[in-house]
Design brief:
Length: 394
Protein backbone atom coordinates (compact mmCIF):
# COMPACT_ATOMS: atom_id res chain seq x y z
CA UNK A 1 0.00 0.00 0.00
CA UNK A 2 2.20 2.74 -1.23
CA UNK A 3 -0.64 5.17 -1.20
CA UNK A 4 -1.06 4.65 2.47
CA UNK A 5 2.52 5.27 3.25
CA UNK A 6 2.49 8.59 1.51
CA UNK A 7 -0.61 9.64 3.33
CA UNK A 8 0.86 8.39 6.52
CA UNK A 9 3.46 11.06 6.38
CA UNK A 10 0.99 13.76 5.57
CA UNK A 11 0.87 16.52 8.10
CA UNK A 12 -0.73 19.77 7.19
CA UNK A 13 0.43 23.29 7.82
CA UNK A 14 4.07 22.75 8.28
CA UNK A 15 6.46 25.56 7.66
CA UNK A 16 8.91 23.29 5.96
CA UNK A 17 6.72 21.53 3.52
CA UNK A 18 6.79 20.23 0.07
CA UNK A 19 3.78 20.21 -2.11
CA UNK A 20 2.63 17.30 -4.15
CA UNK A 21 0.29 18.53 -6.83
CA UNK A 22 -2.40 16.85 -8.85
CA UNK A 23 -2.86 13.96 -6.54
CA UNK A 24 -5.66 12.35 -8.42
CA UNK A 25 -6.95 10.19 -5.61
CA UNK A 26 -7.81 13.10 -3.36
CA UNK A 27 -11.44 14.02 -2.94
CA UNK A 28 -12.43 16.66 -5.47
CA UNK A 29 -12.62 19.46 -2.95
CA UNK A 30 -8.99 19.07 -2.05
CA UNK A 31 -6.82 20.53 -4.72
CA UNK A 32 -3.42 20.36 -3.13
CA UNK A 33 -1.74 18.02 -0.78
CA UNK A 34 0.77 19.40 1.57
CA UNK A 35 3.36 16.98 2.61
CA UNK A 36 5.57 17.73 5.52
CA UNK A 37 9.20 17.49 4.84
CA UNK A 38 9.88 14.95 7.49
CA UNK A 39 13.44 14.55 6.62
CA UNK A 40 14.05 18.24 7.35
CA UNK A 41 17.73 18.95 7.15
CA UNK A 42 18.59 15.46 6.05
CA UNK A 43 16.20 15.64 3.21
CA UNK A 44 16.46 16.90 -0.03
CA UNK A 45 14.78 16.77 -3.27
CA UNK A 46 16.22 13.38 -4.03
CA UNK A 47 14.18 11.61 -1.43
CA UNK A 48 11.03 13.29 -2.58
CA UNK A 49 11.83 12.68 -6.21
CA UNK A 50 12.23 9.01 -5.43
CA UNK A 51 8.91 8.83 -3.59
CA UNK A 52 7.15 10.71 -6.35
CA UNK A 53 8.70 8.37 -8.87
CA UNK A 54 7.59 5.29 -6.90
CA UNK A 55 4.08 6.62 -6.77
CA UNK A 56 4.11 7.94 -10.32
CA UNK A 57 2.85 11.33 -9.29
CA UNK A 58 4.08 14.72 -10.38
CA UNK A 59 5.99 16.55 -7.70
CA UNK A 60 6.41 20.27 -7.27
CA UNK A 61 8.83 21.50 -4.72
CA UNK A 62 8.31 25.01 -3.48
CA UNK A 63 10.12 27.09 -0.97
CA UNK A 64 8.56 27.30 2.49
CA UNK A 65 7.48 30.90 2.13
CA UNK A 66 5.66 30.29 -1.11
CA UNK A 67 4.14 27.25 0.37
CA UNK A 68 2.83 29.11 3.30
CA UNK A 69 0.74 31.22 1.04
CA UNK A 70 -0.92 28.09 -0.28
CA UNK A 71 -1.77 25.84 2.60
CA UNK A 72 -3.75 22.74 1.75
CA UNK A 73 -7.23 23.51 0.64
CA UNK A 74 -10.36 22.08 2.06
CA UNK A 75 -13.85 23.41 2.52
CA UNK A 76 -14.53 24.24 6.13
CA UNK A 77 -17.70 23.22 7.91
CA UNK A 78 -19.01 24.56 11.15
CA UNK A 79 -19.44 22.35 14.13
CA UNK A 80 -19.72 22.38 17.88
CA UNK A 81 -17.22 20.89 20.26
CA UNK A 82 -19.89 19.66 22.66
CA UNK A 83 -17.68 17.91 25.17
CA UNK A 84 -14.12 16.98 25.89
CA UNK A 85 -13.80 13.98 28.18
CA UNK A 86 -10.58 13.07 29.91
CA UNK A 87 -10.17 9.33 29.25
CA UNK A 88 -6.63 8.84 30.52
CA UNK A 89 -3.58 10.81 31.54
CA UNK A 90 -3.47 13.77 29.14
CA UNK A 91 -5.80 11.96 26.74
CA UNK A 92 -9.12 13.55 25.84
CA UNK A 93 -12.01 12.44 23.66
CA UNK A 94 -13.47 15.36 21.73
CA UNK A 95 -17.09 14.92 20.74
CA UNK A 96 -18.05 17.21 17.88
CA UNK A 97 -21.48 17.63 16.36
CA UNK A 98 -22.14 19.04 12.93
CA UNK A 99 -25.75 18.74 11.85
CA UNK A 100 -25.91 18.65 8.10
CA UNK A 101 -27.64 21.67 6.71
CA UNK A 102 -28.89 22.40 3.25
CA UNK A 103 -26.23 24.86 2.08
CA UNK A 104 -23.24 22.66 2.38
CA UNK A 105 -22.77 19.19 1.16
CA UNK A 106 -21.90 17.41 4.35
CA UNK A 107 -18.74 15.34 4.40
CA UNK A 108 -19.92 13.24 7.30
CA UNK A 109 -19.79 10.47 8.21
CA UNK A 110 -16.06 10.09 8.40
CA UNK A 111 -14.51 6.71 9.01
CA UNK A 112 -12.01 5.77 11.71
CA UNK A 113 -8.58 6.59 10.35
CA UNK A 114 -9.59 9.55 8.19
CA UNK A 115 -7.41 12.56 8.84
CA UNK A 116 -9.09 15.96 8.97
CA UNK A 117 -8.20 19.54 9.83
CA UNK A 118 -9.73 20.86 13.03
CA UNK A 119 -9.85 24.55 13.89
CA UNK A 120 -10.61 26.43 17.08
CA UNK A 121 -10.48 30.16 17.87
CA UNK A 122 -7.14 31.04 19.39
CA UNK A 123 -8.79 33.20 22.02
CA UNK A 124 -11.02 30.40 23.32
CA UNK A 125 -11.12 30.72 27.09
CA UNK A 126 -9.66 27.73 28.84
CA UNK A 127 -9.94 27.32 32.56
CA UNK A 128 -6.57 27.12 34.26
CA UNK A 129 -3.35 28.19 32.75
CA UNK A 130 -2.28 26.99 29.35
CA UNK A 131 1.27 25.89 30.12
CA UNK A 132 2.30 25.80 26.48
CA UNK A 133 3.85 28.64 24.54
CA UNK A 134 2.42 29.69 21.23
CA UNK A 135 5.14 29.01 18.68
CA UNK A 136 6.28 31.34 15.92
CA UNK A 137 4.90 28.93 13.40
CA UNK A 138 1.47 28.94 15.03
CA UNK A 139 1.43 32.73 15.30
CA UNK A 140 2.17 32.97 11.62
CA UNK A 141 -0.50 30.48 10.70
CA UNK A 142 -3.04 32.35 12.85
CA UNK A 143 -2.48 35.44 10.72
CA UNK A 144 -3.40 33.45 7.65
CA UNK A 145 -6.41 31.86 9.23
CA UNK A 146 -8.37 34.72 10.84
CA UNK A 147 -7.21 33.86 14.33
CA UNK A 148 -8.21 30.20 14.21
CA UNK A 149 -5.73 27.58 15.41
CA UNK A 150 -5.62 24.51 13.20
CA UNK A 151 -4.01 21.11 13.11
CA UNK A 152 -4.61 17.69 11.57
CA UNK A 153 -6.23 14.95 13.65
CA UNK A 154 -7.34 11.39 13.07
CA UNK A 155 -10.98 10.36 13.39
CA UNK A 156 -11.80 7.86 16.11
CA UNK A 157 -15.45 7.33 15.14
CA UNK A 158 -18.23 9.18 13.38
CA UNK A 159 -21.94 9.20 12.73
CA UNK A 160 -23.68 11.18 10.01
CA UNK A 161 -23.85 14.26 12.22
CA UNK A 162 -21.04 13.87 14.75
CA UNK A 163 -17.52 12.64 15.19
CA UNK A 164 -15.10 11.79 17.99
CA UNK A 165 -11.38 12.44 18.08
CA UNK A 166 -9.03 11.09 20.72
CA UNK A 167 -6.21 13.54 21.31
CA UNK A 168 -3.20 13.76 23.54
CA UNK A 169 -2.35 17.12 25.01
CA UNK A 170 1.13 17.89 23.77
CA UNK A 171 1.05 21.63 23.13
CA UNK A 172 -0.87 24.83 22.72
CA UNK A 173 -3.44 23.63 20.14
CA UNK A 174 -4.28 20.32 21.73
CA UNK A 175 -4.49 22.01 25.14
CA UNK A 176 -6.95 24.59 23.79
CA UNK A 177 -9.15 21.87 22.28
CA UNK A 178 -9.00 19.60 25.31
CA UNK A 179 -9.87 22.36 27.77
CA UNK A 180 -12.44 24.25 25.72
CA UNK A 181 -15.74 24.88 27.51
CA UNK A 182 -18.74 22.79 26.49
CA UNK A 183 -20.35 23.76 23.19
CA UNK A 184 -17.44 25.72 21.78
CA UNK A 185 -17.82 26.49 18.06
CA UNK A 186 -15.19 24.82 15.88
CA UNK A 187 -14.47 24.46 12.16
CA UNK A 188 -13.37 21.35 10.37
CA UNK A 189 -12.75 20.04 6.89
CA UNK A 190 -10.81 17.72 4.64
CA UNK A 191 -10.95 13.96 4.42
CA UNK A 192 -7.49 12.53 3.99
CA UNK A 193 -5.95 9.08 4.17
CA UNK A 194 -7.38 5.61 3.75
CA UNK A 195 -9.69 4.63 6.63
CA UNK A 196 -8.51 1.59 8.59
CA UNK A 197 -11.37 -0.69 7.53
CA UNK A 198 -10.99 0.20 3.86
CA UNK A 199 -7.31 -0.70 3.99
CA UNK A 200 -8.17 -4.03 5.54
CA UNK A 201 -10.95 -4.77 3.07
CA UNK A 202 -8.54 -4.06 0.23
CA UNK A 203 -6.02 -6.39 1.79
CA UNK A 204 -8.67 -9.12 2.15
CA UNK A 205 -9.62 -8.73 -1.50
CA UNK A 206 -6.00 -8.96 -2.62
CA UNK A 207 -5.47 -12.07 -0.53
CA UNK A 208 -8.55 -13.63 -2.09
CA UNK A 209 -7.43 -12.79 -5.63
CA UNK A 210 -4.20 -14.61 -4.85
CA UNK A 211 -6.03 -17.66 -3.60
CA UNK A 212 -5.38 -16.93 0.07
CA UNK A 213 -7.26 -15.30 2.90
CA UNK A 214 -6.82 -13.03 5.87
CA UNK A 215 -7.69 -14.99 9.00
CA UNK A 216 -6.65 -12.48 11.61
CA UNK A 217 -6.14 -8.76 12.00
CA UNK A 218 -3.52 -7.50 14.42
CA UNK A 219 -3.56 -3.83 15.36
CA UNK A 220 -0.60 -2.39 17.20
CA UNK A 221 -1.00 1.13 18.55
CA UNK A 222 1.02 3.43 20.75
CA UNK A 223 -0.70 5.96 23.01
CA UNK A 224 -3.77 7.68 21.59
CA UNK A 225 -3.24 5.87 18.28
CA UNK A 226 -5.58 3.36 19.87
CA UNK A 227 -8.53 5.73 19.19
CA UNK A 228 -9.04 5.01 15.46
CA UNK A 229 -8.40 1.30 16.12
CA UNK A 230 -11.26 1.26 18.62
CA UNK A 231 -13.55 3.00 16.12
CA UNK A 232 -12.62 0.53 13.40
CA UNK A 233 -13.15 -2.41 15.77
CA UNK A 234 -16.60 -1.07 16.65
CA UNK A 235 -17.54 -0.91 13.00
CA UNK A 236 -16.18 -4.36 12.32
CA UNK A 237 -17.99 -5.87 15.30
CA UNK A 238 -21.26 -4.05 14.86
CA UNK A 239 -22.72 -6.62 12.49
CA UNK A 240 -22.24 -9.19 15.23
CA UNK A 241 -24.82 -7.42 17.38
CA UNK A 242 -28.22 -9.05 17.56
CA UNK A 243 -31.14 -6.70 17.31
CA UNK A 244 -32.80 -8.43 20.21
CA UNK A 245 -29.84 -7.92 22.52
CA UNK A 246 -31.00 -7.05 26.01
CA UNK A 247 -31.63 -3.38 26.60
CA UNK A 248 -28.92 -3.11 29.22
CA UNK A 249 -26.44 -3.68 26.43
CA UNK A 250 -27.63 -0.54 24.72
CA UNK A 251 -25.68 1.73 26.99
CA UNK A 252 -22.72 -0.57 27.33
CA UNK A 253 -22.31 -1.02 23.60
CA UNK A 254 -23.94 2.12 22.32
CA UNK A 255 -21.07 2.82 19.94
CA UNK A 256 -21.70 -0.52 18.28
CA UNK A 257 -25.34 0.34 17.85
CA UNK A 258 -24.32 3.66 16.31
CA UNK A 259 -21.83 1.94 13.99
CA UNK A 260 -24.33 -0.62 12.91
CA UNK A 261 -26.18 1.91 10.80
CA UNK A 262 -23.23 2.56 8.53
CA UNK A 263 -20.81 -0.30 8.90
CA UNK A 264 -19.51 -2.58 6.19
CA UNK A 265 -22.34 -4.96 6.99
CA UNK A 266 -21.63 -7.10 3.96
CA UNK A 267 -18.06 -7.83 5.00
CA UNK A 268 -17.37 -10.60 7.48
CA UNK A 269 -14.14 -9.57 9.16
CA UNK A 270 -11.83 -12.09 10.79
CA UNK A 271 -10.87 -11.83 14.44
CA UNK A 272 -9.16 -8.61 15.51
CA UNK A 273 -6.42 -8.59 18.12
CA UNK A 274 -5.59 -5.15 19.44
CA UNK A 275 -2.31 -4.50 21.22
CA UNK A 276 -2.33 -1.11 22.91
CA UNK A 277 1.18 -0.04 23.83
CA UNK A 278 1.40 2.50 26.62
CA UNK A 279 3.92 3.76 29.10
CA UNK A 280 1.88 3.09 32.20
CA UNK A 281 -1.51 2.12 33.43
CA UNK A 282 -2.71 5.72 33.71
CA UNK A 283 -2.31 6.05 29.95
CA UNK A 284 -4.65 3.19 29.05
CA UNK A 285 -7.76 4.36 27.19
CA UNK A 286 -11.16 2.60 27.42
CA UNK A 287 -9.76 -0.44 29.23
CA UNK A 288 -13.04 -1.50 30.83
CA UNK A 289 -14.98 -1.00 27.63
CA UNK A 290 -12.54 -3.01 25.55
CA UNK A 291 -12.66 -5.83 28.08
CA UNK A 292 -16.46 -5.82 27.86
CA UNK A 293 -16.19 -6.06 24.07
CA UNK A 294 -13.76 -8.91 24.39
CA UNK A 295 -16.09 -10.80 26.71
CA UNK A 296 -19.09 -10.32 24.50
CA UNK A 297 -17.33 -11.07 21.21
CA UNK A 298 -14.62 -13.51 22.27
CA UNK A 299 -14.64 -15.19 18.87
CA UNK A 300 -14.07 -11.91 17.07
CA UNK A 301 -12.08 -9.65 19.35
CA UNK A 302 -9.26 -9.71 21.86
CA UNK A 303 -7.13 -6.96 23.27
CA UNK A 304 -4.23 -6.43 25.66
CA UNK A 305 -2.31 -3.47 26.90
CA UNK A 306 1.45 -3.62 27.21
CA UNK A 307 2.98 -1.16 29.64
CA UNK A 308 6.52 -0.33 28.65
CA UNK A 309 7.50 1.04 32.07
CA UNK A 310 6.78 -2.35 33.63
CA UNK A 311 7.10 -4.92 30.88
CA UNK A 312 9.48 -3.16 28.52
CA UNK A 313 8.64 -2.45 24.90
CA UNK A 314 6.88 -5.11 22.87
CA UNK A 315 9.88 -5.25 20.58
CA UNK A 316 12.37 -5.61 23.42
CA UNK A 317 12.44 -9.42 23.51
CA UNK A 318 11.64 -12.21 21.10
CA UNK A 319 9.70 -13.97 23.81
CA UNK A 320 7.36 -11.09 24.33
CA UNK A 321 6.71 -10.77 20.62
CA UNK A 322 6.08 -14.43 20.07
CA UNK A 323 3.74 -14.43 23.04
CA UNK A 324 1.71 -11.45 21.84
CA UNK A 325 2.02 -11.78 18.09
CA UNK A 326 2.35 -15.44 17.23
CA UNK A 327 1.21 -17.88 19.81
CA UNK A 328 -2.35 -16.84 20.39
CA UNK A 329 -4.57 -19.18 18.50
CA UNK A 330 -2.63 -19.09 15.24
CA UNK A 331 0.49 -20.94 14.31
CA UNK A 332 3.57 -19.02 13.27
CA UNK A 333 2.86 -19.56 9.63
CA UNK A 334 -0.55 -18.01 10.14
CA UNK A 335 1.04 -15.01 11.77
CA UNK A 336 3.18 -14.54 8.68
CA UNK A 337 0.86 -15.45 5.86
CA UNK A 338 -2.74 -14.93 6.84
CA UNK A 339 -2.60 -11.92 9.11
CA UNK A 340 -3.16 -8.28 8.30
CA UNK A 341 -1.25 -5.79 10.47
CA UNK A 342 -2.29 -2.24 11.19
CA UNK A 343 0.40 -0.12 12.85
CA UNK A 344 -0.47 3.26 14.31
CA UNK A 345 1.31 5.67 16.60
CA UNK A 346 4.81 6.91 17.02
CA UNK A 347 7.29 6.68 14.17
CA UNK A 348 9.75 4.53 15.99
CA UNK A 349 7.24 1.73 16.65
CA UNK A 350 5.62 1.92 13.21
CA UNK A 351 8.89 2.07 11.26
CA UNK A 352 10.48 -0.78 13.20
CA UNK A 353 7.48 -3.08 12.99
CA UNK A 354 6.89 -2.36 9.32
CA UNK A 355 10.51 -3.17 8.51
CA UNK A 356 10.63 -6.17 10.85
CA UNK A 357 7.41 -7.72 9.57
CA UNK A 358 8.49 -7.27 5.98
CA UNK A 359 11.87 -8.76 6.74
CA UNK A 360 10.07 -11.75 8.22
CA UNK A 361 8.20 -12.17 4.96
CA UNK A 362 4.90 -10.37 5.57
CA UNK A 363 3.79 -8.89 2.28
CA UNK A 364 3.50 -5.10 2.02
CA UNK A 365 -0.13 -5.56 1.01
CA UNK A 366 -0.90 -6.86 4.47
CA UNK A 367 0.50 -3.92 6.40
CA UNK A 368 -1.31 -0.61 6.75
CA UNK A 369 -0.10 2.18 8.96
CA UNK A 370 -0.37 5.69 10.24
CA UNK A 371 2.39 7.64 11.95
CA UNK A 372 1.36 10.30 14.44
CA UNK A 373 4.72 11.91 15.07
CA UNK A 374 8.44 11.28 14.71
CA UNK A 375 7.96 10.15 11.13
CA UNK A 376 11.64 9.90 10.43
CA UNK A 377 12.59 7.84 13.46
CA UNK A 378 15.18 5.53 12.00
CA UNK A 379 14.34 1.88 12.59
CA UNK A 380 17.06 0.36 14.76
CA UNK A 381 18.59 -2.54 12.94
CA UNK A 382 18.79 -4.83 15.93
CA UNK A 383 15.11 -4.27 16.69
CA UNK A 384 14.08 -4.94 13.09
CA UNK A 385 16.10 -8.16 13.18
CA UNK A 386 14.55 -9.18 16.49
CA UNK A 387 11.03 -8.67 15.16
CA UNK A 388 11.84 -10.67 12.02
CA UNK A 389 13.36 -13.43 14.09
CA UNK A 390 10.43 -13.63 16.52
CA UNK A 391 8.04 -13.96 13.59
CA UNK A 392 10.09 -16.71 12.01
CA UNK A 393 10.36 -18.96 15.04
CA UNK A 394 9.38 -22.56 14.52
C1 LIG B 1 -33.60 21.75 4.51
O1 LIG B 1 -34.55 21.96 3.50
C2 LIG B 1 -35.83 21.42 3.76
C3 LIG B 1 -36.71 21.59 2.54
O2 LIG B 1 -36.51 22.84 1.96
C4 LIG B 1 -36.43 22.06 5.01
O3 LIG B 1 -37.69 21.51 5.30
C5 LIG B 1 -35.49 21.85 6.17
O4 LIG B 1 -35.93 22.52 7.31
C6 LIG B 1 -34.07 22.34 5.84
N1 LIG B 1 -33.17 21.94 6.89
C7 LIG B 1 -32.27 22.76 7.40
C8 LIG B 1 -31.43 22.19 8.51
O5 LIG B 1 -32.12 23.90 7.04
C1 LIG C 1 6.93 4.91 20.96
O1 LIG C 1 6.14 3.87 21.44
C2 LIG C 1 6.83 2.89 22.21
C3 LIG C 1 5.84 1.82 22.55
O2 LIG C 1 4.80 2.31 23.35
C4 LIG C 1 7.42 3.56 23.44
O3 LIG C 1 8.12 2.61 24.21
C5 LIG C 1 8.33 4.68 23.02
O4 LIG C 1 8.80 5.36 24.14
C6 LIG C 1 7.57 5.64 22.12
N1 LIG C 1 8.47 6.66 21.62
C7 LIG C 1 8.20 7.94 21.75
C8 LIG C 1 9.19 8.87 21.17
O5 LIG C 1 7.19 8.35 22.31
Amino acid sequence: MKLNSLFATFVAFSATSVEVDAFQTLPPHVSTLCWQQQYSSATNENVLQRIAHDLSIPLTIRSPSQLYASSPQYDTFEGTLETSHRLADNSYLLHITAPSNNDSESILPYKPGHVIALEIKADTETPGQNPYDRTEKTLKDLENNDGWLRAPFTITRSTKDSFDILIKVVGDKSYTLAHAPENTPIRFGGKFKVPIEDGIVESMQKAKENGGSIDKIVMISTGVGVGPCIGAVENMLSNQLEDDDPAENLERFRFLYLSKEQANAEVEFPKVELLGLYRENEDVVYGTYLTALKEKFARKFDWQSILSNYQGRLSSTENMMSYYLCSKGTDFRGALENTHYHLIGNGSMVNEFREGLQKAGVSKDRITEEIYFDHTAKPREEVVDRIAKAMNQE
